[in-house]
Amino acid sequence: xxxxxxxxxxxxxxxxxxxxxxxxxxxxxxxxxxxxxxxxxxxxxxxxxxxxxxxxxxxxxxxxxxxxxxxxxxxxxxxxxxxxxxxxxxxxxxxxxxxxxxxxxxxxxxxxxxxxxxxxxxxxxxxxxxxxxxxxxxxxxxxxxxxxxxxxxxxxxxxxxxxxxxxxxxxxxxxxxxxxxxxxxxxxxxxxxxxxxxxxxxxxxxxxxxxxxxxxxxxxxxxxxxxxxxxxxxxxxxxxxxxxxxxxxxxxxxxxxxxxxxxxxxxxxxxxxxxxxxxxxxxxxxxxxxxxxxxxxxxxxxxxxxxxxxxxxxxxxxxxxxxxxxxxxx
Length: 330
Hints:
- The chain is α/β, with parallel strands linked by helices.
- The chain is 48% helix and 20% strand.
- The protein has helices spanning 3-30, 37-49, 52-56, 60-77, 93-117, 129-136, 140-146, 159-168, 230-241, 255-263, 276-280, 305-310, 313-324; strands spanning 82-85, 88-91, 121-127, 150-156, 173-177, 186-193, 195-199, 221-225, 247-252, 268-272, 285-287, 297-303.
């Protein structure tokens, strides 16, 4: 027999077998009722809201619909997908898996539709307010220039919330502290976020240049972050180590608000060093103090590899943003 004929026969057999397997798979999946895109959408909405009532926004008919559709999905798959917890619900382990699979399915279909119609691709980026203000926005023009036909959405989120949403596939990228990133997420370092003391012209500190002495921190009234987050804990640790009595007079919910307080000229503040370009224009002086090295944070660009496999445009976006958002070395 001619080898080419035999080879073509094998290729044809493999093709027929593949088509047969696909047909059998679809028939097996759809031979029973209970599975549909509409039901999967309802399930994902309830999972995201944390309860049927919240997802239905108080509409009784919609609540009934959502409950029935989830029951139908449970009957179809033969497993419990949700459990009641207080006034809401929590997903079971199979429910978590189905939620992830359904979200990826919808994301793939939406991505295909968007690309097929040549519509702008939405890229969602989660980060803290200070990172958005001082790391991302100054380089927005470069990113837009290199990511044509895209629409960027920035969400102000804590590092922990960014990590959770990346795992759930609800955002595409996050810029967060390296210590909050864990599997299945992947990341690339953007550099180290340093901190300095920023002092307005109306206030005076003794001496000039950089300081090795931490005592200067207690010579000026200060604004800082409210609460008991990692920054306040680390700043308190520095105060105890150097036996400082900081004059905290104003507390704010974010670093940009702290910076606004400094702009009034009434208080100084310890802020990320990347704020220097904004504050210097207003005559605010940056004082570098070695004792503040304990506040350093390594930032990284994080993503979910499963999302990048679905949305190929994100590969280009990752390269562009890594280059644009890298923090210069101090």
